[in-house]
């Protein structure tokens, strides 16, 4: 029983880490998304 609890706890920790990374990526894209899009557009316009 203890082994199953530890395994479940590990899965929950991985889920929390994955959720935290997803939230950070969403925040970064919200803050810098338009600037990055404009930069790519400028590079493509050069060619």
What do you see in this structure?
With 47 residues, the chain is an all-alpha fold. The chain has a domain at 19-47. It contains 1 helix and no strands. The mean pLDDT is 85.
Helix run count = 1
Oligomer: single chain
**Which spans have pLDDT < 50 for at least 5 consecutive residues?**
none
Radius of gyration: 19 Å
* Strand elements, count: 0
What is the SS-derived class? Answer: mainly alpha
**What is the helical fraction, as a range of percent?**
over 70%
CA-to-CA gap between the ends?
63 Å
User: What is the overall shape?
Assistant: rod-shaped
In this structure, how is the largest beta sheet organized? none
Determine the strand fraction and express it as a percent band: under 5%
Average the pLDDT over all residues and give the rounded result.
Answer: 85
Q: What is the helix/strand order? A: H
Secondary structure layout plus pairing:
Layout: H1 2-46
Short summary:
This protein is mostly helical.
Spell out the key features of this protein.
single chain, mainly alpha, 47 residues
